[in-house]
Amino acid sequence: MMNNKLILIIEDEEDILELLEYTLKKEGYETIGFLYVNNNVRKVLNEEQIDLILLDIMMPEIDGYEVCKRLKENSKTKDIPIIFITAKTDEESIKKAYEVGGVDYITKPFKAIEVLSRINTHLTLAEQKTFLEHSLEENMILLNQYKQVVDESSLVSKTDLMGKITYANDEFAKISGYTKDELIGKSQNIVRHPDVANSVYKEMWQTIKNKQIWRGEVKNKKKDGTYYVVFAIIMPILDLNGDIKEYISVRHDI
Predict the structure, then answer these.
(1) How does pLDDT run across 106-130, given as a tens digit for each residue?
(2) Which among 71, 76, 133, 124 has a CA at the least distance from the CA of 101?
(3) Which of 70-85 are b and which e, b meaning 16 or more Cβ less than 10 Å from the residue's Cβ?
(4) CA distances from 70 to 33, 48, 73, 125 (A)
(5) Nearest 10 degrees: CA dihedral of 129, 134, 139, 140?
(6) How far apart are CA 81 and CA 102, in angstroms?
(7) Per residue in 74-110, pLDDT tens?
(8) What is 126-147 written as a DSSP string?
(9) Pairing mode, if any, of strands 82-86 and 104-107?
(10) How many CB atoms neighbour CB 178 within 10 A?
């Protein structure tokens, strides 16, 4: 069985290092082992794609805590899962291991099945984290493109819960005759035309406050007193709890 995962082991007891390498290689993992931190370890971290690190705490010159801390401060190695394997069993040592960035803590003597299970768990979690990060990045790229299309073709604005404008795109500013600075922070009423009955706005607010989408034609007033008519779609933006965070309006000049 080949796992195609490379695990770095830093362990100051040679017999335990050999046992760990034997156990992992038997399961198809690739391993690189060191008895203490030296320049070769740094070279491996710079040149190889390490998937997980098994790290002892008590080592000469620099202990495992400091090693972990430095790895987490390095942009290239900060996301590598680090599992401490050590004879230190006191609560303070375990607490410190997690505080410096370790994802797990295994005490000696350990069972091979325990080590393999922990490794499998954290490799799986790391893969899921990477997948979610890539999916999020891809979605953000797509959303930015969608936003660009809407901004180029529509009049877009956002308001807070009190109806004050928090965002206005170039097209909205252009047709209204106001600059963005003149719009931001002002009530949406800045473009309200007196010809539009109060009942229209009352219905609009009741609809969006009830978390529904309002659609309709609206006559708006420009800065110079002239008017323009738009077909507007106004909807509430909800947070993860389902509460209204803000309102967005997308209009088309008709």
Answers:
(1) 999 899 999 999 999 999 999 999 9
(2) 71
(3) ebeeeeebeebbbbbb
(4) 19, 17, 5, 22
(5) 100
(6) 7
(7) 999 999 999 999 888 899 999 999 999 999 999 998 9
(8) HHHHHHHHHHHHHHHHHHHHHH
(9) parallel
(10) 19
